[in-house]
Amino acid sequence: MQDIQKLESAGDYNGVINAVRERVAKDRRAFTDSSIKAWCGRRWRNLFINEAVKDETALKAASGGLFSFGDKRGDRQKIAERYLRGDGPNEWNVEMPLAQVPALKNVTLLFCPGMLNGLLPVRAFQEALPAIEQKHGWPILRADLHPMRGCEANIADLEAALERGTGLAADCSVIPADRAKKPGDVFIISYSKGTPDVLHLLVRHPELKSRVRAIFNWAGAPGGSYLADDIYNSVKDLPIDLDQTPVGRLLTTVSPVIQTESMRRLPEFDIKTCVHDVTTPVRSAFMAEHRDFLDGLGIPFFNITGSTNALEVPYFQIQGVNQLNRYDANNDMQVTQDQAKVKMPMATDLAMLHGHHWDVSYSPFPNRMRFGSPHLDHPFPKEAAAMAMFLLAAELGLID
Q1: What is the pTM of this model?
Q2: If pLDDT is split at 50, 70 and 90, which confidence band does 367 have?
Q3: What domains sit in the chain, N to C, each tagged with a CATH number?
Q4: Quick check: 371 and 257 in contact, CB under 8 A?
């Protein structure tokens, strides 16, 4: 590993890329080394900046709008300082080689969304994934995870995607059964509750380790959420009968922007279990029991988290941010940094983003669904982030 450090110190980034790829090819547990972890983080952030400067909306937001007069910063600096935290804002002037865009044929991206999937005005990566698919022809499949049931129940939706290729296309359209095609190997991007769902799948089906090349835990909730603890305490004793209870009204305790007309698979709704499964005691107990087993599967995990403050979120989320601030001022309005990370030797931290839990994943909400909030425009460069995940995975030799 000292060779990697020497190569990077000398500015021989091509040498680092080749050396890391060779180590990973020999043994996936190379990701447990701190030098490789640190390199992966710097490289992903560099790739993200390279891609994000192409996003005009993100760049405009990073330039300060009306307050940009006299701003002499370059585009890379603006992007880094607006959308990255931690070490990221200081890395805008690091010149690394451009990534070679891969010709992917044998590996499918499986995107695993979170709670409320399909119930909000927009879906996660709604515009980013179709754009990437159209530009590069890479196979993309969305797991049609139920928006409101427990992790164990949602394994069925993940199995449907992995074993039959059923679910949603990149553009969120339903894949007809006669056009579904079982994917071969996959690499996974899991968002929010999608990460706990995926972890339950791997515990139930460890044989999938040969097909799962890598998992990018994107603003995930593997450690649960303190906010979910409060929501669960408010609903756990309610007598919920799907034939009698106005589910739409009940769901407003989770979020006021839920689109009740979008509800489907209503008989499968299990609100109590869904929220229960992302409480901190449940997630902590799950990881304590299964961490070593999951680490032993040898699947590389990559953590990418969000960070915001009460002045940057929709007004109806301010209370949640202030509550989480008691634990961590770098929360993303749903989870703290600690809760957002898969913590085990095979997990690598790539970046802390400057954006709230919805901003980093969702397109702008329609104006009529913003409830007067100025913070549902979601300028974070999501296509750039997804591209950086593709490019890093390919560069590391994890996908081909």
Answers
A1: 0.94
A2: confident
A3: 2-90 (no CATH), 107-395 (3.40.50.1820)
A4: yes
